[in-house]
Each structure stands twice: as structure tokens, then as C-alpha cells.
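<goal> How does this chain fold?
<body> The protein record starts here
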Amino acid sequence: MPSLEELAATIESVPSVLRSLLSPLDPDVLQRRPEPGEWCALEVIGHLITCEGPAFRGRIQRIVEGETEILNFDPNAALVGRGFESADLADLIDQLEAERAESASYLRTLAPEDLDRSGEHSKYGTMLAGDFAYEWPFHDQDHLQQILAAVKPRYLESMSPQMRSAMGVA
């Protein structure tokens, strides 16, 4: 089972991974939607920012402090009107980095037994603080894959038909 330090270090590393991976790319690549209605890379980062407090750190804090109700969080509603799709990459990563520093610091204050505290979710029933702590890096990794899927076409479109065939992509 991952330790609290592993969880903290893992979520804390995501902004630097994103900065290294995405900084070389043109803004139009970061704004490209893989499919209509799907998030572009910048919106995915915006999603990570908007769910940091309410979906992860805040839920864990409330459960550890003894609140029994786990609040719902609508990730799509949290993005509405925020303009992440046209935001500056460095600014977004700076925002995420600040949130993650606060979150990692909070995780480091917890005792392992705090993760066993529980609350009730109206749809899913009893959930542990640890459920949200362990979902956090899993959620990040899903969204890193989503970002990669959004930016990979940048390179694919420059490959010859022969290379695409050799890679098994059309």
C-alpha cells in the first residue's frame, strides 16, 4: 500500500512533468481537441486545478475532521466559464503547482490511521479518506494519458504513410 509520503510526492511531481512535457509545444497544439466535445490539454490541466480542493484535499480534510457527508463534485460544471482552453500554459502549471504544494503538505500532516476514517456519499455509500488519497495519483495518471492522446497527433501527422503502417496506425 502506498505511504502518505509516496502519495504526496507523486501528486507533487505532476506539475513538473507537465511543464517538461508540454512547454516545447505551440499553444495551438495545447488547444486542439482530440474529438469534438473532448477536453484539450489546457482544459485537462484546468480540470486538475478545479478538482484539487473540492474533490480531493477538501474531501479528505472533511472526513478526517469528522464530517459524515461526502459532497458531490461536478467536474464539468467546475470548468464552465473559466477559459482554460485559451489560458497560458505556464500560468496554469503555476496554479496547479501551488495547489499541489498545499495538498502535498496536507497529506504529510496525516497519520496512516486517518485514511481509515469514513463518510457517506449519497450515491456510492461509505467511503474512506484513503479512497480519495489513493484515487488522486490514479486520477492524475488517467489525465496524463488523456493529455498525451491530445498532443500525440502533432507528431503522427508528420510521419510518412510507411511509418504509420509500421506503427500500426492509419
Strands lie at 69-70, 118-121, 125-128. The radius of gyration is 18 Å.
